[in-house]
Amino acid sequence: MKPPTLKLDDERLHPDTQDRATFQHHIARYEFALERIAPGERVLDAGCGAGYGTHLLSEKCAFALGIDYAPQALEFARGRYGGANVAFAAMNCHRLAVAEASVDCVIALEVFEHLENSEAFLAECSRVLRPGGRLILSTPNQVTHDLHMNSIGMKNEFHINLMSEKELHAALQKHFAEVEIYGQRRSGSRLYTALRALDVFNLRLRLLSSRRRERLQHAMGVPVGANAKPEAWIFSKSQLKQCNQFVAVCRKET
User: Fold this and answer.
1) Are strands 63-68 and 103-109 parallel, antiparallel or unpaired?
2) Largest pairwise CA distance in the chain
């Protein structure tokens, strides 16, 4: 069981965070999702946190509803983001207070690994989606996540539901007719791309310190630190073993 959320940044990113690279890493996933929704659609942003992603989605869709169970997050979201086609509501992701078949797309970025009952959440996503509706979900790659955290001597106590690519695919297939999994990774020079493609055992994470990895990335044209903007990451169905994040695009049966 994960600990309770006591303040906004215990479990969530927000636009005022000092960790700009991680924030931009997250924004890149929202931009990935934004490309896959259409004007006129109704979107549910599950685990919306501080609301910046819901706000981004609302710039394209007909209506965006951001939900979260943390009052600190909802207070921040409501205070900073608003509009005729965006709203925020207190809700538990395991029990969505949303009508059946009423949503075109569910967005769930950086929430899956925080859930105590991910099976219930996926069932609820399927229930609220219209036939042919999509779930776009991101979650860390358990293998690279654990290797990275070990290399920096840290542990994220809020990440209680990490999965491998195989486990994630199996979990999603129980509820959706189509499942595609992309990997999110940094862009860089041809040399960097080639070396990363060869590193199927993630030796860079096993053998090099975080600081050493960052220096090598910088030398090979990889945007790091404050230079890492959303466009610094790419999404691909290749190199899933080496990716930092999985991003799944799932479609409900029509």
Assistant:
1) unpaired
2) 51
pLDDT at 187 over 80: yes
Q: How many CB atoms lie within 10 A of CB 150?
A: 12
Walk across the sheet containing 42-46 and list its strands.
86-90, 63-68, 42-46, 103-109, 129-140, 245-251, 178-186, 233-236
- Please state, in angstroms and rounded to a whole number, the distance separating the CA atoms of residues 166 and 170: 6
Could you report the per-residue pLDDT of 104-148, keeping only the tens digit for each? Answer: 999 999 999 999 999 999 999 999 999 999 999 999 999 999 999
pTM assigned to the model: 0.93
Quick one: what percent of the chain has pLDDT higher than 90? 76
Residue 167 has a pLDDT of 97
- Architecture field, domain 19-251: 3-Layer(aba) Sandwich (3.40)
At 10 the pLDDT is 66
Distance CA 133, CA 128 (A): 9
